[in-house]
Amino acid sequence: MAQLELQMYDYNEWANRQIFNRLRELPKDVYRREVQSVFSSVSHILAHVYLSDLGWIEVFSGKSMNDSLMLQEQLKEETVSKEIEEMETMFLKLSERYKLFLSKMENIDKSLVIENPNGDLMETSVFEQVPHVVNHGTYHRGNITAMLRQMGYASVPTDYGLYLYLKQMENNQE
């Protein structure tokens, strides 16, 4: 996985797995417990991240931003209602879709013209947007950490530096 985009997405998948593993260790009600925060519950954050990631892979694959946003809106209620095990499975399947897409070099350099909801156009590329997808996930994993603290529970470290360290340790053992 020499490609930076693939490595970044691998990190994103690893960090999400860390969060899911931690959530499974906690009492079942923590996933849906309402708190005063950016989102009303951890389940709402994970649904938001999933739908955003789904939206971006749809855009990367050729759909318009408007079609992507409509898809996200259509799936919102259904996604929020998923139990943690179903949500984790959805994240894993989506990760497989990303990794397959990102493993094809021609996709990385793919130009994108994104029409924002306000009508403005943005010229960009998959290469430029993968860090956005990963950063968005990082931001919301931070929200989850804060919410867990608010509920009296510790979270787990999901830093990119830790991911790199653990990958290096894993490679040294091979």
UniProtKB/TrEMBL annotation:
GO MF annotations, alphabetized: metal ion binding
Swiss-Prot/TrEMBL keywords: Metal-binding
UniProt binding sites for a divalent metal cation: 48, 136, 140
InterPro entries, sorted: DinB, DinB/YfiT-like
Acetylation found in the keyword field: no
Transmembrane segments: none
Pfam families referenced in this protein's UniProt entry, alphabetically: DinB
Keyword Metal-binding found: yes
Top-level taxon of origin: Bacteria
Classification via PANTHER family: PROTEIN DINB (PTHR37302:SF1), SLR1116 PROTEIN (PTHR37302)
Recorded family membership: Belongs to the DinB family.
Designated name of the protein: Damage-inducible protein DinB
UniProt organism field: Lentibacillus amyloliquefaciens
